Amino acid sequence: DSGVTQTPKHLITATGQRVTLRCSPRSGDLSVYWYQQSLDQGLQFLIQYYNGEERAKGNILERFSAQQFPDLHSELNLSSLELGDSALYFCASSDFAGALDNEQFFGPGTRLTVL
Amino acid sequence: DAKTTQPPSMDCAEGRAANLPCNHSTISGNEYVYWYRQIHSQGPQYIIHGLKNNETNEMASLIITEDRKSSTLILPHATLRDTAVYYCIVRVGRTSYDKVIFGPGTSLSVIP
Predict the structure, then answer these.
(1) What is the mean pLDDT of residues B58-69?
(2) Fewest 10 Å CB contacts: which of A27, A41, A58, A82?
């Protein structure tokens, strides 16, 4: 158990819909990262937040958005869903200021299926 | 784009050492080499990281060449539970800006 929690574990929805994925980082971790992993694309970095602020952006579509709240949990919002958005979505957290030197701890993931 | 290259797959006999290579010829002076592994559809798991010196922990050893252009992850006594995809990535350590790029990794199969 990494200490990172993600909800829901599974999500099935239809094209055109909007969903929200939730992540709670390890206690004390200020950084949250979101990744998308589909069968043909591997593990793709989407976005990083640090203490409520966006810090790094990867291959995140404009239909996707994220935020980190004052209690440090984060949400990834996916809208106008397409079949190709079906994937595993992972959240990770880290405490770069700590002794662990930016090691990332990954959650169990949310499996999104768009029908 | 990923800044590392790894062989797509490798086999290793159970009980033997698994040596997983990684090339990172464009690594910068302030970038660390990190290794993660992902067991089927689970969240990736941190293994080890290093900057210049060789590193060892309870899971593995990391050997970094003197010019830092390549490294090798060593699992000293591979078990069936080590079957996973292993990712080698380079990142700047201790920074709040952390655009992490994973490559396709090496799929390691440990064979009984």
Answers:
(1) 95
(2) A27
